[in-house]
Amino acid sequence: MKSICVYCGSSIGNDPKFLEEAVSAGTLIAQQGLTLVYGGGKVGLMGAVADAALAAGGQVTGVMPADLVKQEIGHKGLTELKIVSSMHERKWAMAELADGFLCLPGGPGTYEEIFEQWTWALLGFHAKPCGFVNVSGYYDIFQKLTQQAADSGFLAQQYVDMLVYGGSTAEVIEAFRAYVPPPPKWGVAPVEQRY
Fold this sequence. Notes:
Elements: E1 3-7, H1 16-31, E2 35-38, H2 44-55, E3 60-65, H3 66-70, E4 80-84, H4 87-97, E5 101-103, H5 108-122, E6 130-133, H6 140-151, H7 157-161, E7 164-166, H8 169-177
Parallel strand pairs: 1-2, 1-5, 2-3, 3-4, 5-6, 6-7
């Protein structure tokens, strides 16, 4: 594992533990010699993760659509800021750059990004782990929702169980290193990794 993509809020939220974990995440990723891949913002938890990784001497790659860069929320101190044309291109680029996807607290953009990677993983389009840092129980409801999908017959249990949860970034990354993907939903993985 060489890089971790972090999805998280463009706000800091109202629980100080959210910001604390974002700083811890960036620091730990850098200390473990991993490249941080993220959305390229300087604001909210996104900015905090990037700043912490940079402060710890890490490599940070941001990916951001040109329209958002023009709104001046792009981080100007990154190792690399890839400017793309659309949100779809952004997600694709982040997916290609990362070896795993780590989700901190966030809003609809955060959910949408991790849901897409989880979907691609269960379809066998990639074999990379998806994990949640469950700060202050933030993802408890999500865990219940995904279990309800399985209990209701919309999802095989193995695709609920493939998601990694931990109380800290350290726990999630440790689990990532031991991750074994389940078989793809339709039985045969694509010949090449694709998105």
